[in-house]
């Protein structure tokens, strides 16, 4: 009597959970040589979708088998199939209505961004918050407005993106590199570097000084300056200006952001021009810009109304810190540079844009000659041009009176 072959002893196997997830090709045909020398073709049945979902058996049926073996094989198949069929019948089915309802919920559009103002907000604070909403419009992003001389937060539009999530500040980080370069006597506002290419402006800006480099956001200029400074000094001034640690604002879920622990020499240029590896929030950049224009005071921002407000200083930059010459660059960015979308002949705006990895920033202040408000706009997706346009609409809403219509009697 010949031995029973493996295919005859176990002609069927149940589909496991992992098998249900597989994608089966068309039925595969194979040939197996028997002990007597005759070939037995084996066909793998292709499971249907319902079989995969219910856990039905996947069987391997011999196309040709001896008459004596066939009844035993068929009986074994039935014994293995019956428990699987019973389990499939008992398993509850999901209705088409529930699946459709779930799909409808997932496709629901997001609601408008949250607008946060102090409980004791003044009429001016409320006007700023409405201007922020008007400026951002349907764009996904955040707006933070703050008094640069006290650290009082006037409004936060969409605190999740402006406070609780940290992103690369892109070219806004060039402010840090500029302060470090000026203070460490690596450059002066008039130091000229030849931008011969490799910039977002592909032919290069040619010979360019710090003021102009800020205005047009010249990458090679700041890459060169960062390489002269080294990462240790750049990191020092980033921390002095409030980056890499929570600001301490009296709002929940503030992200800390961060600075890289180590930056290789070959990556120093990209960090200096694009803030590669740096993470900040919009409110941190509001503190940074405020310190640059208020003489070096790093405030702890506080959401509050104006009545009875007491500023909180975290620290002051060293007396030798140099920030002169930056204002010309910030003005140039709006008047003729990367932030031209914020330009208005009746509202003098100054600021710095940032664009990288689908993100857009604009850190600015107004009026430029006597700043009373710092605004940081963040957009995603977007770029610095889009962010500066948001700020431009916001400032026009605040500082330009609504046009009046006059009617004349007709004859």
What would you say about this model in short?
The chain is α+β, with helices and mostly antiparallel strands and 411 residues long. Helix content is 36%, strand content 17%. A hairpin with a 5-residue loop joins strand 2 and strand 3.
CATH superfamily of the largest domain: DD-peptidase/beta-lactamase superfamily
Please give the CATH architecture of the largest domain. Answer: 3-Layer(aba) Sandwich
Stretches where pLDDT falls below 50 for ≥5 residues?
1-65, 96-108
Radius of gyration: 34 Å
Total E-strand runs: 15
Helix content: 25-40%
Tell me what the structure shows.
By secondary structure, this protein is of the alpha+beta class. It folds into 2 domains: 6-90, no CATH class; 115-399, DD-peptidase/beta-lactamase superfamily (Beta-lactamase). It is built from 15 helices and 15 strands.
What keyword list fits this structure?
411 residues, 2 domains, Beta-lactamase, 7-stranded mixed beta sheet, alpha+beta, 15 strands, disordered N terminus
Secondary structure topology:
Layout: H1 6-9, E1 12-14, H2 17-20, E2 29-33, E3 39-44, H3 49-54, E4 57-62, H4 70-90, H5 96-106, E5 115-116, H6 123-136, E6 141-146, E7 152-157, H7 159-162, H8 174-183, E8 193-195, E9 206-208, H9 210-216, H10 219-229, H11 231-240, H12 268-274, H13 282-293, E10 297-299, E11 302-303, E12 313-316, H14 326-336, E13 350-356, E14 359-366, E15 373-379, H15 384-399
Parallel strand pairs: 7-11
Antiparallel strand pairs: 1-4, 2-3, 3-4, 5-7, 6-7, 6-15, 8-9, 10-12, 13-14, 14-15
